[in-house]
Amino acid sequence: MQLGIDDLSFATADQYLDLADLAPSHGVEPAKYYVGLGQERMSVAAPDEDVVTLAAAAAQPIIADLDDAGRAAIRTVLLATESGIDQSKSAGVYVHRLLGLHAACRVVELKQACYSGTSALQMALALVTRNPEQKVLVICSDVARYDVGSSGEPTQGAGAVAMLISANPRLVQIEPLSGLHTTDVMDFWRPNYRTTAVVDGRLSLRAYTESLSGAWADLQAQGGPSFTDIDTFCYHQPFTKMAVKAHQHLTKVVGAPRDPEVLDAQIGDSLRYNKQIGNSYTASMYIGLISLLDHATEDLAGNRIGFFSYGSGSVGEFFTGLVVPGYRDHLRTAEHRRRVDERRRVDHDEYLRIVAPANPVDGGEHPIPVTSRSPFRLAAISGHQRVYVRSDEAAEAVA
Ligand code: COA
Fold this sequence. Notes:
The active site is at residues 82, 114, 236. One of its GO terms (molecular function) is hydroxymethylglutaryl-CoA synthase activity. Residues 3-168 form the Hydroxymethylglutaryl-coenzyme A synthase N-terminal domain. It comes from Cellulomonas denverensis. By secondary structure, this protein is of the alpha+beta class. It folds into 2 domains: 3-170 and 331-397, Peroxisomal Thiolase, Chain A, domain 1, CATH 3.40.47.10; 173-326, Thiolase/Chalcone synthase (Peroxisomal Thiolase, Chain A, domain 1, 3-Layer(aba) Sandwich). It contains 14 helices and 17 strands. It has helices at residues 23-26, 30-37, 51-64, 68-72, 91-98, 116-130, 201-221, 240-254, 260-267, 272-277, 284-295, 333-341, 348-355, 394-398; strands spanning 3-12, 15-18, 41-44, 74-80, 106-110, 135-144, 157-167, 172-182, 188-189, 198-199, 232-235, 304-311, 315-323, 344-345, 365-367, 376-382, 385-390. Strands 5-4-6-7-1-8-13-12-11 form a 9-stranded mixed sheet, with helices on both faces. A 3-stranded mixed sheet has the order 3-2-14. The chain has a 3-stranded antiparallel sheet with strand order 15-16-17. Helix 7 packs across helix 8 (240-254). The chain is globular. The chain starts with a strand and ends with a helix. 48% of the residues are buried. The structure holds coenzyme A (COA). Coenzyme A binds at residues 29, 31-32, 35-37, 151-152, 154-155, 188, 199, 201, 204-205, 208, 238-239, 242, 312.
């Protein structure tokens, strides 16, 4: 039985900052970000957007295409995030309601920095193995935030990916072997009392590549495919240059040729959306996968993709998947391009106004003005409750 990704969709925030508009505040040339980090723009989540609204917007097109039996087959929703909005209640429960899913469903949130989406994928595959009639909706959703003025600031972003995991998938069959690597390292974390991450940037780059080496060695020890058996690669992308560095590192480890044109053919298409969106933590590698499938000019049917998923702290996993023949008939390329291209540009002052306000903590009534054009909105924080609405119901909910 083949198992894997049957449908894929992403959403990003409705506004973006061009990194050329950020560069002067750091006293650097735009080329440092465009070339040095491989990032051109970053999505900026408005006050009425968060991991719930992004997750629902990512999954909505998938759910809309299912009939009632297809929706009922979704008996599990796994939401991976490191930008959680509650210490107790899963963000996935709000998403489950916004999507109109059946009550006969388990919903849970998973956390391990940028890695937890991959753990959700593996758990989903295990559930479908037990009952191939059921489907699992995996959603990775994050808003990447660092302090204003910090070196992490140009590596922010926001995005969510929804993946429908099933038997006989239409897009990518996930192969059973994985290489794993866990080690306790303080490269990036976010204590409960902070809204922005704390990061040791240099250490995080080293920890990432060491994790890649460890996970790759484990994949080989498990009898996984060799480097030359893999056609294209998708890496976790905190900024796209990191994926380039990671791939260069892997070619060095395995002693493969490092001709820039060959390297670009192996990873270039997976970087295109992320250059425009920025970091989306758990979602970033899967936006990379969508980018690869949406942009490849040749038919990738039968190609083996190597995935390296990394979450600081740290957990790394290297696994592989085979692209299913006919996958192109099931891509949502036009919708993805629209979501990236139709964002509104904000200038630096506007960006600072957007990221400044802290969430109210007094339990009062706090309506949130309509800013984004997302199909789902955070309409208010009222009596310590977050009030989520479909945008067409928003006026009614806050009236
Ligand atoms: N033109 C072109 N490239 C330039 C440049 C210019 N004018 N100025 C600098 N650069 C290059 C640097 O040479 C460097 O490239 P290299 O790493 O290939 O040598 C790159 O831009 C970044 O410059 P650097 O000075 O190292 O950046 P920084 O100290 O401001 O921080 C990060 C970079 C990634 C460490 C920082 O953004 C960060 O902490 N991000 C969050 C953590 C993260 O994403 N970690 C990843 C693992 S999960």
